[in-house]
Amino acid sequence: MNRKRSIPGEKSLSGLANRSLGFYTVWVAHLGRRYGILQGLSRRKRPAGTRAIARACGLHEPAVRVWCEAARSLGLIGYNGKGYRLSAGLRRLLVDGDDLRFLGGQFSYLALRSLDFAAFDDFFRRGAVTGAGSRHLREASEEATRWDHTSFVKFLLPRVPGLASRLRAGAQAVDVGCGTGGWVLRMARAFPRSSFTGIDPDRTAIRIASGKWKAAGARGRVRFRVGSGGEPMREFGPFDLAYLGETLYGVKDKARLLRNVRMALARNGFLVLAEGLVAAARHSWDVAAQLVAAMGLDFALQGARFFKRSELEDLLREAGFHRVRFHDAGGGLWFVVATADSKRSGSERGGAARVPRGDR
Fold first, then answer.
1. Tens digits of residue pLDDT in 3-37
2. Which of 83, 153, 224, 261 holds its CA 20 to 30 A away from the CA of 285?
């Protein structure tokens, strides 16, 4: 009788092999988004051949053919003998940035950041953190934070009704570390009665953000300025809302930034932070916790690290913020909401569901 013999460690070897497939899934998904192939397939009602896809996207057909076969083998697209198609479920995951299950931006972030990983050589051998480790960070961050902005509108605002009603009525809001303006532009479209200011020290990012606003044919209610949250912001305020989207972790003088933000807020103004948080030891097996721990290498290359919840609470209290609430958006991302009202203090926890971003 011929029986298959088990090999010691076979199960763990299989798991590692799957990680290799994960690497290619990230890159195939990113390339499909970068060159518009996935977006094009999402708009088609019928399957399409590689020639039709290449023609519609203005791409080299042999390259499209290789990509389609790779994407099909990884389960990203389907093939029915006549052409390739993108299912409705994968459209939501890979293309629709307004869906809370969207993962496409995360894949593109990982692919783009990997282009900077040659800088690990200097980091490991000399402990040096150089600009070479952040060359693609602006573009990568723009991709990753698309989901953050959707989550802000669809996940956070229903849990903070006072903030939502202010934005609907007409509020003054500032995005500190606005990058290329994704949050500001998204919010300006969603809340036409409110005004938004984006501040960032990166002149190129501000130029891109301003260009996007002008290209949309819109005027007023939005302004972008080169600046740093480390400087007083009174000339721009007072603000009803200050948003720091995955910004604070990379700031050297975090306490000074938070104090300046508090001084720029109107009475009872809201501060909203979006940050990844290190999971407690009892949750270290969780998929989101594993992702945050692995991304610690990425952050180290930026000269930064993820916060612990207790660290963030202490920083906010020392800067004069109170009524701190933590909302778990999933995937390792937390929204932290606080106010500058000194009449009440304490830290409360929001009741958000713990759903890893990849399992939505």
1. 444 445 555 556 677 888 999 999 999 999 999 99
2. 153
